[in-house]
């Protein structure tokens, strides 16, 4: 298979898989879930098969269709997109394993629709990862929003549908009102929207225009959840936990910060933005989001809502790192996408396992639960420590590079934001860990043990990945360093 064929296969495989999953659901759940597993494994084989090409400096690309002169649907594989595609495809398999245990253990309805829509979302994610220009990115960005709406609205009750409409409304309105005009503006001044090393906008805009265009992109890409475009994310917590894991770790929010980072590097160019004084506001907006969301998380009593606000803060770590406009910080942004994915999916898996086993959703209900669910809570502990940024977890590695980039730029706002938010992260996670392991469970509680085995296996795998990335991160750092090669 040529690299060009592999690009198309990565996008089409989940799409075909969604159809097969829908048909297999009529036969039986085991066939349906086998189809999900085969599709996800096939996707890993195709996507990860592109890694050697990228490591050798190759940049395979293919143009599928020219919509009009200068506007085409095209795909290119570069290191940042390769990282995102490899991450999403790998975590889809683990999430599918977890979903089988969760959906069966919780006796959820419409499971066939759930697995089919999940596959559609991964097809859109692959299109975003390999997008060769802004138009292609926008097209698949919208497809991802539409394909995930049924997942958020999965339960179907009035409150869930209302929250799902908030999810859809915020993401569609921001992309149409802000993201699309930013794309049109870029094409009009640069004559192209192709992602190009070093950017395409140098000498095309004056200083104030740079800040305005950057704002249209940053707030138009609502999936990045930079305040005040964050309200869709807590609203989406009505979805089943595997969907929350998709939203927070595998695809949706990662698409947001991935797109902003890619636009900063390949459309603006980091040196161009570093020299433009009007671009500095983005770092302050991200820093505010980090601190504000962390403070709000301190006040949460529901497990999933706490994790939602934690995600808002952690996403803006990536945006802030990208907005430092220094090589080490850009590398830190890439690493934090991986670190956050491993740690946050572990936390959501654990939250879902707790719900399936005990129906507990509130933090106060977790007293002593570590004795009943040692595997689940050990994984939760690892995920929480990674969110704080403590060694030996993935979160320490990414925060180290972001902090190094802040020192490289003499950016004291970023330095103090990282330190302050780390303290806040510890303030809302450590009391939970103490409660889980060292306090006694209230008498009269429901007798229960661990969640279904498949769910426990999945969360243990992601917890091990969170630990493993601390030691084995060179395979990510090496190709991602190619992105910033030559930038000072």
UniProtKB/TrEMBL annotation:
Q: Is Cell membrane a UniProt keyword of this protein?
A: yes
Places the protein is found: Cell membrane; Membrane
InterPro entries for this protein: CPA3_Na-H_Antiporter_D (IPR050586), ND/Mrp_TM (IPR001750)
> What is the name attached to this protein's record?
Monovalent cation/H+ antiporter subunit D family protein
Question: Which keywords belong to this entry?
Answer: Cell membrane, Membrane, Transmembrane, Transmembrane helix
Which sequence ranges are marked TM in the entry?
A: 6-25, 37-55, 67-94, 114-132, 138-154, 166-190, 210-233, 245-269, 281-299, 306-325, 337-357, 378-402, 414-438, 450-472
Major localization class: membrane
Q: Which family does it belong to?
A: Belongs to the CPA3 antiporters (TC 2.A.63) subunit D family.
What membrane topology does the annotation report for this chain? Multi-pass membrane protein
- Does DNA-binding appear among the keywords? no
Task: Give residue ranges for domain NADH:quinone oxidoreductase/Mrp antiporter transmembrane.
Answer: 131-423
Q: What Pfam families does the record point to?
A: Proton_antipo_M
Superkingdom field: Bacteria
């Amino acid at each position: 298979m040529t690299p060009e064929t592999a690009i198309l296969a990565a996008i089409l495989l989940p799409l075909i898989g969604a159809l097969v999953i829908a048909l297999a659901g009529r036969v039986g759940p085991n066939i349906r879930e086998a189809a999900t597993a085969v599709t996800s494994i096939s996707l890993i084989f195709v996507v990860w098969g592109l890694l050697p090409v990228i490591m050798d400096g190759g940049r395979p690309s293919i143009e599928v269709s020219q919509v009009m002169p200068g506007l085409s649907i095209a795909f290119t594989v570069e290191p940042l997109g390769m990282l995102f595609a490899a991450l999403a495809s790998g975590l889809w398999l683990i999430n599918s394993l977890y979903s089988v245990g969760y959906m069966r253990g919780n006796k959820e309805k419409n499971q066939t629709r759930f697995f089919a829509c999940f596959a559609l979302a991964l097809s859109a994610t692959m299109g975003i990862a390999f997008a060769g220009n802004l138009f292609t990115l926008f097209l698949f960005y919208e497809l991802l929003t539409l394909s995930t709406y049924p997942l958020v609205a999965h339960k179907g009750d009035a409150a869930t549908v209302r929250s799902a409409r908030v999810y859809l409304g915020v993401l569609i309105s921001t992309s149409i009102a802000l993201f699309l005009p930013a794309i049109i503006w870029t094409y009009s001044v640069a004559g192209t929207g192709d992602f190009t090393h070093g950017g395409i906008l140098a000498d095309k805009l004056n200083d104030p225009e740079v800040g305005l265009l950057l704002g249209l992109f940053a707030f138009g890409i609502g999936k990045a959840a930079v305040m005040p475009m964050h309200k869709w994310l807590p609203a989406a917590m009505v979805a089943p936990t595997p969907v929350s894991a998709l939203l927070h770790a595998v695809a949706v929010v990662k698409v947001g910060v991935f797109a902003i980072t890619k636009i900063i590097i390949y459309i603006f160019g980091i040196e161009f933005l570093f020299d433009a004084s009007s671009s500095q506001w983005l770092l302050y907006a991200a820093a505010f989001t980090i601190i504000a969301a962390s403070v709000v998380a301190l006040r949460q009593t529901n497990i999933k809502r706490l994790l939602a606000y934690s995600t808002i803060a952690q996403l803006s770590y990536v945006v802030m790192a990208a907005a430092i406009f220094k090589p080490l910080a850009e590398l830190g942004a890439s690493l934090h996408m991986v670190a956050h994915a491993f740690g946050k999916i572990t936390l959501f898996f654990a939250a879902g396992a707790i719900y399936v086993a005990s129906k507990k959703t509130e933090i106060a209900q977790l007293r002593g639960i570590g004795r009943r669910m040692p595997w689940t809570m050990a994984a939760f502990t690892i995920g929480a420590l990674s969110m704080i940024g403590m060694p030996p977890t993935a979160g320490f590695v990414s925060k180290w590079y972001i902090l190094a980039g802040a020192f490289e730029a003499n950016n004291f706002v970023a330095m103090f934001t990282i330190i302050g938010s780390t303290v806040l992260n510890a303030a809302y996670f450590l009391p939970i860990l103490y409660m889980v392991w060292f306090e006694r469970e209230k008498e009269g509680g429901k007798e229960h043990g661990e969640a279904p085995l498949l769910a426990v296996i999945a969360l243990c795998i992601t917890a091990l990945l969170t630990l493993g990335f601390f030691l084995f991160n060179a395979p990510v750092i090496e190709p991602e360093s190619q992105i910033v090669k030559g930038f000072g």
